[in-house]
From TrEMBL:
It comes from the Bacteria. SUPFAM superfamilies: Periplasmic binding protein-like II (SSF53850), Winged helix' DNA-binding domain (SSF46785). Pfam families: HTH_1, LysR_substrate. Belongs to the LysR transcriptional regulatory family. It comes from Deinococcus terrestris. InterPro entries: LysR_HTH_N, LysR_subst-bd, WH-like_DNA-bd_sf, WH_DNA-bd_sf. Residues 1-58 form the HTH lysR-type domain. One of its GO terms (cellular component) is protein-DNA complex. Keywords: DNA-binding, Transcription, Transcription regulation. GO terms for molecular function: DNA binding; DNA-binding transcription factor activity. This is LysR family transcriptional regulator. The keyword Transcription regulation applies.
Amino acid sequence: MELRHLRHFVALAEEGHFGRAAERVFVVQQALSNSIKNLEDEVGVPLVRRTTRRVQLTPAGEEFLVGARQTLALAAQTVEGARRAARGEVGRLTLGFVSGLAFGGLPEIVRVFRERFPEVSVDLRELTAQEQEAGLRGGTVDLGLMLLPVRDPSLSSRPLWRQPLVAALPAGHPLATRAELEIGDLAGEPFVFFPRHLRATYFDQVMRWTSGAGYTPGVVQEAIEVPTLLSLVAAGIGVFLPIRFFESLALPGVVYRPVRDAPLIEIVAVWRGGGEVSPVVGSFLEVAAEVLGSGQANP
């Protein structure tokens, strides 16, 4: 049984006339008549009564009309569902992100994405870069947001935005009175920072920057989360060099100051390589580019 036969039957039932029904479905009248006859042969019972003036449905035809309309509606929904999936409007997105992005960029992007694509279920997972790469390879993560570099050559990536490092200082620190700092101004200051094995790229970039100014930071306290490190700054234990978007984490006792010629930390989107991005991933990347480009995410 073909959908076109059902369309022909519904048109005939609603028009009550072979000529008008044929015009409605853009076929000649004889083709429509043959289509209805083939349908009746397949069903095994008469569906219409033919008269010289009007076509009427048999009781079987009345019942068949209900199912025909439902079948055509379901077919249309199925086609539209496939098209929406191809446009990335429905489905599921498992999104990995490194600690810190929750304070800058990511909330705004996710909010706009969910408003625009309410039928895409977004599963957010805070993961290290290594955990994201493993999840992408294993299929448990669809898209990752992390800092460069991406170590796995089988993964594809796209730059999203760049953020400079800033100085986080105790509120009473003498340098807090200045509008802008030089990295050399922090020579001799006690630092708080991540353990290198957790943020090797970030750690090494800071060390190269300070080395260029002629010193190596003296790290007096380590912690694994940025809010904890900023709490140590507020307590006066040391200074810290976070990415600028952490300025949105307004912690009492901490002031942020820009540092001249600060290195830019690049945040990239990463997905499984070997082909085009999935429609849902593509939709998310489009929204991210739009939000970041408009300044809504304050990159």
